[in-house]
Design brief:
Layout (H helix, E strand, L loop, with lengths): L2 H32 L3 H19 L5 E6 L1 H4 L8 E7 L8 H15 L3 E5 L6 E6 L9 E7 L2 H16 L1 H17 L12 H15 L19 H4 E2 L2 E2 L6 H7 L8 H15 L5 E4 L3 E4 H4 L17 E2 L14 H20 L4 H8 L18
Parallel strand pairs: 2-5, 8-10
Antiparallel strand pairs: 1-2, 3-4, 4-5, 6-7, 8-9
Helix pairs in contact: 1-6, 1-13, 5-6, 6-7, 10-12
The structure holds uridine 5'-triphosphate (UTP) and magnesium ion (MG).
EC number: 2.7.7.19
Subcellular location: Cytoplasm
Family: Belongs to the DNA polymerase type-B-like family.
C-alpha cells in the first residue's frame, strides 16, 4: 500500500470513528428526552399506593408491585404501568380469574378509572385507564395481574442487566423500543414483537454475539454462595441469576469498549444478515439454540400455526417462546425494518441526527401484520 493509500485509509477510519462518536452522542440525547419525568414517576407511585390500599380492603395480606418498564429501567414517557398483585395469605388462594372479577368490581365502584376485566386471558388481568386531564396530560393506563412471580423475576433480571452498563444497555433498549413502535413492529396482538422481546434481543446480542461480550451471562455465573432449591425455583422454573451487581463489578469487567453507536450499527447488521431465523432460537441463558433441539418446529397447519416462525426463549420459562405471536407477515416486516435500519446507518448521512430521524420516521400502518393476528395478548 502506498503512503497515499495509507493516508486515505486512515482518513476513512477517522471519519468512521468520528461518525459513530457523533451517532452515540445523538442517540444518548435522543433517549434522554424520552425518559419519564420525576413528576410522572411520582404520580404513578401514588396511583400504585392508592390501588394497593383499595385491594387490601378485600385481601388484607396483598401487595401490589410494579414490573415491566416502570420497574426495569426501560421506561418511556407515558408508558403503561404494569402491576402485579401478590397475596401472602395462608388461606386457600382465590383463582386469578375470580380475583380479576372481584378487584374489577371494587375499582369500578371506588375509583374514577375506566375498568375492563379479562378473567379468562392466558394471564388474567384488570385493565385500568384514566383519560387525560390538566394534571395528567397523557392520562394513565395500567394492567393489574395476579401472582405473576415469573414476570417480577424477569423484570429484576432485565433491571440487573441494565445496571451493569446503564449507558449502553438502557440507550440501546430504549432506542429499540421507540424505533419499533414508530415503525409499527411492536404489537404482539397484530403479529409482531413485544418490547420485552426486543429487550431480550438486545441482551442476547450483548452477551452472546459481541466478542468480547458487553455483558456477562448472569444466569451462568457461579453463585457466590450455595442456593437452596426452593429459593430459586418458581413452578419448576429455575429463576436463579447473579443479582449482586456490586459484587459482580468487583469480579467482572467487560473488555468491550465499543460505543453505543457502533453497537447499534452491529445490532441491526446481525439481525438483518446473520441471525438464523429459520433454525435458530435466541436464548439469553444458553446462547444460540436450534429450534429442532427444543422441539420448536414450524408446523404451519392450514398455514395458521404460526407459533415458531421467530423464536426467543424466555429466560426463566424456557419452554415459552416470547416471539410466539409473530406471524409470517410480522416477521417479514420486522426483518425488513432491520434491513432498512442497517441500510440507513451504512449510508452514514453527514449529520447523524438525520440518521436517527430517518430511522424513527413514523411508518404508516399498512396492515401487513394483521392477517393472522395473534389471539391472546
Ligand atoms: P412489555 O413488552 O409491555 O415491556 O412487557 P415494557 O418494557 O413494559 O414495554 P412498553 O413500554 O409497555 O412498550 C412488560 C413486562 O411483562 C412481562 C415482562 O416482565 C416484561 O418486563 N412479559 C412480557 C413477560 O413476562 N412475557 C412476555 O412475553 C411479555
Ligand atoms: Mg409495558
Amino acid at each position: 500500500m502506498t503512503s497515499q493509500q495509507h493516508q486515505a485509509q486512515r482518513q476513512r477510519h477517522i471519519s468512521r470513528h468520528q461518525w459513530t462518536q457523533s451517532l452515540s452522542r445523538d442517540l444518548h440525547n435522543f433517549v434522554i428526552q424520552l425518559l419519564p419525568t420525576a413528576e410522572e414517576l411520582a404520580v404513578k407511585e401514588d396511583v400504585r399506593k392508592l390501588l394497593e390500599r383499595l385491594i387490601r380492603t378485600i385481601e388484607p395480606e396483598s401487595r401490589l408491585l410494579s414490573f415491566g418498564s416502570t420497574a426495569n429501567g426501560f421506561s418511556l414517557r407515558n408508558s403503561d404501568m404494569d402491576l402485579c398483585c401478590l397475596i401472602d395469605s395462608s388461606q386457600p388462594p382465590l383463582s386469578a380469574s375470580d380475583l380479576v372479577t372481584m378487584v374489577g368490581d371494587l375499582l369500578e365502584r371506588e375509583t374514577k378509572f375506566k375498568v375492563k376485566t379479562l378473567p379468562h386471558a392466558r394471564i388474567p388481568i384488570v385493565k385500568l385507564s384514566l383519560d387525560p386531564s390538566p394534571g395528567l396530560p397523557y392520562g394513565i393506563s395500567s394492567d393489574i395481574g395476579f401472582e405473576n412471580r415469573l414476570a417480577l423475576e424477569n423484570t429484576r433480571l432485565l433491571m440487573s442487566y441494565a445496571s451493569i452498563d446503564p449507558v449502553r444497555v438502557r440507550t440501546l433498549v430504549i432506542f429499540l423500543k421507540v424505533w419499533s413502535k414508530r415503525r409499527k413492529i411492536n404489537s404482539p396482538y397484530l403479529g409482531t414483537l413485544s418490547s420485552y422481546g426486543y429487550a431480550l434481543l438486545v441482551i442476547f446480542f450483548l452477551v452472546h454475539v459481541k466478542n468480547p461480550p458487553v455483558l456477562p451471562n448472569l444466569q451462568q455465573l457461579p453463585p457466590p454462595r450455595p442456593v437452596p432449591y426452593e429459593d430459586t425455583h418458581i413452578g419448576g422454573n429455575d429463576v436463579w441469576f447473579f443479582d449482586d451487581i456490586d459484587l459482580l463489578k468487583e469480579r467482572w469487567q467487560s473488555s468491550n469498549t465499543e460505543s453505543v453507536g457502533e453497537l447499534l450499527i452491529d445490532f441491526f447488521k446481525y439481525y438483518s444478515r446473520d441471525f438464523t431465523y429459520n433454525t435458530g432460537v435466541a436464548s439469553i441463558k444458553m446462547g444460540l439454540l436450534k429450534k429442532s433441539a427444543k422441539g420448536w418446529l414450524n408446523e404451519y397447519k392450514d398455514g395458521r400455526d404460526e407459533r415458531n416462525r421467530f423464536c426467543i426463549e424466555d429466560p426463566f420459562e424456557t419452554d415459552f417462546n416470547v416471539a410466539r405471536c409473530v406471524t409470517k407477515e410480522g416477521l417479514y416486516a420486522i426483518r425488513g425494518e432491520f434491513m432498512r435500519a442497517s441500510r440507513i446507518l451504512a449510508a452514514r448521512p453527514e449529520r447523524t441526527i438525520m440518521a436517527l430521524a430517518q430511522l424513527c420516521e413514523e411508518r404508516e400502518d399498512d396492515g401487513y401484520a394483521g392477517a393472522y393476528g395473534a389471539e391472546e395478548e
